[in-house]
Amino acid sequence: MLPSLTGFYTFACAAKYLSFTKAAQELNVTQGAISQQIRHLEDDLGLKLFHRKTRKLTLTKEGKRLAEVVQYSMRSLISTIEEVKTGGSLKREIDPNFSVHEQDLHRGWVEEAIKVIDAEYYRCSDTNLLKLNLPTFPGIHLYFKDESTYPTGSFKHRLARSLFSNALCNGWIQQGTTIVEASFGSTAIAEAYFAQLLGLPFIAVLPSSISQRKLEKIKFYGGKYHLVDDSRPIRIVAQELAEKHQGHFMDQYLYAERAVGWRTDQNLAASIYEQMQKELYPLPKWIVVGVGTGGTSSLIGRYNRFRQMPTKLCAVDPENSVYFDYYQTGNRNLISHSRSRVEGIGAPRVEPSFIPGVIDRMMRIPDAATFASLHYLEKVLGHKCGGSTGSNFYGTLQLIREMRDNQETGSIVTLIPDSGDNYLDTYYNPEWLQANDYPVEQYYQQIETFFTTGRWIDLEK
Ligand SMILES: *Cc1c(COP(=O)(O)O)cnc(C)c1O
What we know:
Blueprint: H1 5-17, H2 20-27, H3 31-45, E1 50-52, E2 57-59, H4 61-85, H5 100-123, E3 128-132, E4 140-146, H6 156-169, E5 179-182, H7 186-198, E6 202-207, H8 212-220, E7 224-228, H9 234-244, E8 248-249, H10 252-259, H11 268-276, E9 286-290, H12 295-306, E10 312-317, H13 323-329, E11 361-364, H14 367-381, H15 387-405, E12 410-416, H16 430-435, H17 440-453
Parallel strand pairs: 4-12, 5-6, 5-8, 6-7, 9-10, 9-12, 10-11
Antiparallel strand pairs: 1-2, 3-4
Helix pairs in contact: 1-2, 1-3, 1-4, 2-3, 5-6, 6-7, 6-10, 7-8, 10-12, 14-15, 14-17
Pyridoxal-5'-phosphate (PLP) binds next to helix 12.
């Protein structure tokens, strides 16, 4: 059983100020009451949360760890309650000193900003749908939606545009607002680009393992960054940083699912169906995507339902990610203690934009199979693709195999979310693959044999 919410709330407040006196002032209770609440909480948890010295209050190691999560959860709870109450339209409390005149001024800037986003959309052309010939599998047609041609190099360009547009229309961004985002790279690059277009300061919170190339691109678009080691979740650090700068935390993991419009035809799903129109099998049997925030799978799954498409959605998950297990078990509290090695997909905890109910099938793809797929794809498609394309391709091969075995014909569409340029030092570097002990060779053989002869070699672990 969890201790009382009041205890956690008190703890969050005391941890924020590192002072029972200030916490008492903020919560409008006596200092004794605070002290008692904390003691109860410590008893309930069986943990010591604070070191109490005469003049100084500090958090214990356990207290520190818990404080981060509790503060984050409390803020999420408060802002969600606020949002639910206002029908999702209001995020900040209205400042009574904020005059109507100022609102008008901001409104003017927001209108200009929306125009800038709109014009950018108009300037960008749609991405290509490539076809890969499958001579071994007559009657099965495979397509790749190549999203790597966006100006910022990945389909996070679409997401960043939607997040900015959503935040502007909700009144969360005004002239001068510092934009903060937690990202593994691609979203940060795309948001830096849009922040620069709008003349807004941008700070990305990134894991310290991020590649130099991605950092360079963020800097290129005028973004700043803040690196975090494995000890703290980037989302929590980003939220703190946004508060410190009185900025706006974009929060792709929360808003990807909401900011992307699935009831319109200006999205990735609509574009795929539109471009398939003149193909022999215009309605794909399957669309195969990876899951990072969950935004893409949520969009396509919902669009399929909304437009009553017969197409099924298959999502692929890498190693060290909880999505596959969550999909199987429904347990939302799963945590993975290692990070996904396939940049862009997988997550150590279930993110709020992931909606399992719109996904028809999920597969876990071994990382070595993903990397082998990239190398094989380079040979047959002539492109170096990003890591998640490898997972998509390997998942697609399973579906091709099943369709062939069931004597089905039809098309399958999958994605190239980003290009391989960012991964020359890793997935495309034989030394990196060897140093990490990936059995890429046997998967490569398996893929090549299947692709050229149709025979599937079972790899026993
Ligand atoms: C973000 C990302 C994904 C996953 O897309 P989501 O919409 O976040 O689930 C896949 N591949 C790459 C390269 C990405 O950057």
